[in-house]
Every structure is written in structure tokens, then in C-alpha cells.
Amino acid sequence: MKFIEEFRDPKLAHELANTIHKVTTKPWKLMEICGGQTHAIIRFGIDQLLPKAIELIHGPGCPVCVTPIHIIDQAIEISKKPGVIFCSFGDMLRVPGTLEDLLNAKANKADIRMVYSPLDAVKIAEKNPNSEVVFFAVGFETTAPANAMAVYQAYQKKLNNFSILASHVLVPPAIEALLSSPQNKVQGFLAAGHVCTIMGYKQYEPLAEKYKVPIVVTGFEPLDLLEGILLCVKQLEKAMHFVENQYTRSVKRDGNEKAMEFIKEIFDITSTHWRGLGTIPESGLKIRDRYCAHDAKLKFKLDESNIATEYATPCQSSLVLQGLIKPPDCKEFSKTCTPENPLGATMVSSEGVCAAYYKYRR
Questions:
Q1: Is 99 in the same domain as 158?
Q2: Chain-centroid distance, C-alpha 93
Q3: Is residue 19 located within the same domain as residue 100?
Q4: Nearest Cα to 152, choosing from 294, 54, 35?
Q5: pLDDT (tens digit, 9 = 90+) per residue, 231-287?
Q6: Is the pTM of this model over 0.85?
Q7: Structural domain of residue 226, as residue ranges?
């Protein structure tokens, strides 16, 4: 537990909370972007240490939760094709599509394998030259370098039986979509530290200036979150709005330049659909033409014209993902919607906000 316990010190946490109480004179609404941050806030009761004037709004920071229904349907469609080995991280297997999820497809004899790295899928492709191996590549900027590496290795090794079904989303365009919404009530952001470890935070600076909101790059432990909240509130109280870096032990302004170069080598920026948010311009990644042999959408001639948004369900996860309601506000929460019987992706994912409330706040 070295280097973890020091960021969970109860005495220091209460000191930071007391300081937040002292500097807060007005009501403020802050949004944490990352699902990992949301889980830490709920698990450690960070929000319960804050003044009542401060409301934490949970953002669309879980990649599993924002993966659109039509991509899940495409994954299931591919997995059922003869000769296909479909590889995925475990948390994607139970995300509901229009009619079923990948776990149902696996139960019906689709060859679906859980892996821990996209490079595991590349090895499977090497060992099974007569099968088409597809990796379900989802996530924010954090996972893009590893998925880019998988495509690059397959390209170098001429593994034409390997491809990825890419569903990558980018954080800054999502922040802008939220801020430009007429329903927006967020006044400050806690940016996801792991995303900024890769991308840096230069791209947040124009957003802070354009929308006059403070953005604080924040880590994931209790002291990280409390300090991030304190920095954000201090800016709001002084009517300031700039990007501040709380997570200095991991994040630099310019990010990881080599990782960013590798992402640009494999991917182009494109508009993409977010579950619960709709289509956001220039908020996703697609495989460049040079590496098109490893693009599952092209290889399997998937129909991109019919993009399902939400199917008929009483689940209100789309409103949860926009920060308009919290999980207990949904009538189905912890009743018909549970981790064993999830109605929406926010209850499925280990980083989903509904799953966090179910585990720690029922």
C-alpha cells in the first residue's frame, strides 16, 4: 500500500475539508469527469465532508457507459460470425445492446474471450491464423496508445486476421458539449488525471477561457479529490477561470508526447455517438486508411447508417450521464435495475455511477 495510504490520511482529509468549508461563501456545482473519481467520491464519502453549498455532479466519465448501443450490437453481430474469435475486456460483456449483450452471445456458442490487454488479442491472432480475431477497443484517450500498439504490431507482423472494433471517445469535446447545453448547470470541472497523463491539459485551456469555468486536473485518491475541489472552489470564489494541475506527480502540461504521436499514427479524429449524449463533433477516433486492413467495421462491412440511440426502457441512465439527475432519482434504481439485472450501462460497469451508488449508498 506504499504511496496509496499517504493519500488516504483521515486527518489530512478532514483538514482539507475544513479549509473548503472556510473558503466557501456561495453555492457551487462541480462535475468530476472520471468514473474512477466518482467511485472514490462515493466510496470514501468525499461529498459528505463538503459544505452543503457544494454539489458534486457526476459526469459521463465511464467509457463502458458511453459506448453507444449500435456499437454493442455490431460487436455481437461480429462475434456470431463463423470463424471469429471476439476478444474484449470483461466489463464490456454485460453492457446491454438492443436485444442482448455479449455474455448472452457467448452463452449461445459465440467464441468470445476475455483478455487483459489488446496485445493478448494479437497473440491469439498469431496462434489462430485461420480465424478472424477482433478486439473490442473502447475507452478514452487513456487506452488509445495500447490499442494503437496492437494495430501497429499486427500491421508489422502482417497479421491480416487481426482487427479492432474501435469505439474511442475524447474528453474535451464532451466537456464542451455539456457546457454548451442549455441545460448545463456545471460551474467547474475536475478533469480526469489519467487522461491528462497521456494528453496533457493544454487542450482544456481554450475551454476554460471560452466558457469561463475553472478546470482542475485531479487524481483519484481522497486527498487528491479534496485538494482538487479546494482549488476549484478558490477559483470560483475569486471569479477566476483557468486550468490548474493538482495531479502534478503524474501529469505535465504537454502530456506524454510519444504516446500522442503514436495515437496520431494509427487514428484520425472523427465525430462519434455517445450513449446518453448523442453525436458529438470530433469526439472520437477512427483507424487511418493506411491501417484499414485492421478496421473491423470495414472488414465486416458493418452498416453505419442505422445508429440506435436508446431503446425503450424505463432506465434513465442518459439523464444520469448528463449530470441532470443522480441514480436514486431514477424510479428503477435498486428495484428493477441492479448489478444482477442491469437496465443500463451505468449499472453494469465497475466505474458506472449507478453501480457506485448501489454498492455504497443504498
A1: yes
A2: 16
A3: no
A4: 294
A5: 999 999 999 999 999 999 999 999 999 999 999 999 999 999 998 888 999 999 999
A6: yes
A7: 5-63+181-245
